[in-house]
Write a structure and sequence with these properties.
The complex is a heterodimer of chains A (138) and B (220).
Chain A (H helix, E strand, L loop, with lengths): L1 H41 L1 H4 L16 H6 L4 H7 L1 E7 L2 E7 L6 H11 L12 H9 L3
Helix pairs in contact in A: 1-5, 4-5, 5-6
Chain B lengths: L1 H21 L12 E8 L2 E8 L6 E3 L5 E3 L7 E7 L7 H15 L5 E7 L7 H11 L6 E4 L3 H10 L4 E3 L7 E3 L2 E5 L5 E6 L3 H15 L2 H4 L3
Parallel strand pairs in B: 5-6, 6-7
Antiparallel strand pairs in B: 1-2, 3-4, 5-10, 8-9, 10-11
The chains are: A mainly alpha (138), B alpha+beta (220).
Chain lengths: 138, 220
Amino acid sequence: MKTLLIAGSFFITMLIIASCQSEQQVDYNRYYSAGAAVYQSRCQNCHGDKGEGLAALIPPLTDTVFLKANRHQIACYLENGLKGKITIHNKEFNGIMPSTGLSPIEIAQVLTYVTNSFGNKAGLINSDEVEKDLKGCE
Amino acid sequence: MKRTRALILSIGVTSTLLAACNTGHNNALPIYGNREPVTKMVNGKSVTDTAYQTIPAFRFVNQYGDSITNKDLNGKIYVADFFFTSCPSICPVMHRNMLNVYKEFKNVSDFRILSHSIDPKYDSVAVLKKYADNLGVSGNTWWFLQGKKEETYKLAGNYLTAVAEDKTAPGGYVHQGYFILIDKQKRIRGTYDGTLPDQVGKLIADIKELQTEPDQTLAQ
């Protein structure tokens, strides 16, 4: 009887974990596909359909190390734009990115797309995270 | 019998001659723009020919600070577009695609690319040079031009392209992203949406086609 109880609770626990994971997976998929559409209409002209950027004018979005190190700042770049020197793949870029005018949810979607495309794999960036990051913008 | 043969022969020769005269009009690429018949006297006879719309005279400055006029395009096939360096919308994708044209023809001496800035106040010679450098463009195949704003805007119309200042548009200007192909007689031979890689692929193919036309192979 006791064994059955333990086995039963173990089974239920596993079920909860599995459903949690799949819920996060569903979230991720939703963010990612919505982000792809945002990227296409708002980012691709400059950054390219493969995130390749444009020569020394526009930085590529393929620098996984940069994206990881600046995970909590990139939402601010999209919110406020970006000006001045940045180093991507050991190359210096010194241009102006205008403010995107995207809502926090759209920022979260497009960041989930970008940080999981073009060789990046950062997982889900949800709107809670983005809203928290936006409060910390300089 | 002999007379018939002579007649056939002379018809044959005549039509060959006529065909030879016609080669200039037998081109694979169309000629765009307005056209009108022009009648002039040749050897005492009135002859009617077609006058095609051509690109009028202009004078601008390129990214090296050199003065560039229509005369510098004599005997050249070229592609023109309109942009500005601080453009946040379609210009980056246009020039990403134009780079393919540049890479294909950068060593062809009678080929040019002309990118006209529609924001000459911001796009000084120094700004255009920096832009060209950052794009990886050197030499004299691809010129970034600036000059009097009114002249640029008027010229855009001659290229069948619309540009305008618009405070409400991102970056402050609206313009069409066309690439316009001009032949050595300064006639418009094609217009392509510079934002679409497929169209720009067609442009590259059409330039190669144009290069083989008899009118274009002659030294001008």
